[in-house]
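tool_call: predict_structure(chain=1)
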Amino acid sequence: MGKLLDSVDTKALRFAVGFPVVLAAAFVYCAFLLRPELPEPVAIQWTDDGGAAFAPFGAYVGVGAAGVVAAGWLVLLQAVPLGRPVMMRRIMMGAGLFLSLFITSALAAGLIGQTGLADARESHVDMTVLALGSGAAVSLGVAMGMVYKADRQWSPDDDRALQIAIARELDPDLARDSMRLWVHARSSVFVMIAIASLFPAALIAVVVPWLGILLVVLAVIGAAFLFARVRADRRGLRVMLAGVVPVMDVPADAISGASAADVKAADYGGWGYRHHGGTAAMLVSSGPAVVVSKTDGQRLAVSGGSPASAARLAEVLTRVAARTRPGGGPPPSGGQPEF
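tool_result:
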């Protein structure tokens, strides 16, 4: 039983089972309120020549209520298993709500059309009730499909978040040994890129539209490469160009030291990702950066944003690198890279 409950959305299960039953009970209650004004038997089918098929009132209400429950369960329960795609579960939840309400509306329209008549052959389906009920069923079904949260109640992401929280509780220094930041070029650089690309693109697009669009796309890609996401933690240093392309991944045990410095991008080959000889750099502008020395003698430089964030990044990298050494002692070069 426990494994079964773990594989289903219990909140959705309660709704899928309970809603059709409550809706059918409400229909039965309202039908008995109308009972004194209905003929006996009541019509259940109408033909073009004015004829009708009849059934006892109890059969009409009982079979109708059973149909509401059966149709609701048949569709709504498709949204309960957690192993099914999220979109499918949302569609099934909305469709089940719509179908239950629509059947109830059709049954109610059939009864309302017979109220006050002595002979059910003179009756008809009340189109106003059917139209209002169908409209409400559609709108509520769409709303349910949009708002239903079909995600797992507890996902692997939650497990990872819990593990991180426990680790931080057991190791208060874990938060100090982790840092994430975005670095980007100065705003004037992006203004320059926009001016240098949009105006020519507008002129070119008059003659060759696709070439103008291509120029704008290239400018956007170039601007994106002046963004970088920097992450430093106990695993080491990781830099992602434009936030998605990994260009640097240095394990903590490969770092011998790190220090903040004010660098010129031209000394490392210019802006963006550069690699020459034993030096790699990811600089979005000249200014505050972190210069990292590796245990194999190579060096790399990463933009640090502001002087304060660069100093903190260097401190985190120095500390996590020291943790990987026996006894957590200082690096061989004394904690500072040699220039």
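agent: Residues 329-339 have pLDDT under 50 and may be disordered. Proceeding to next step.
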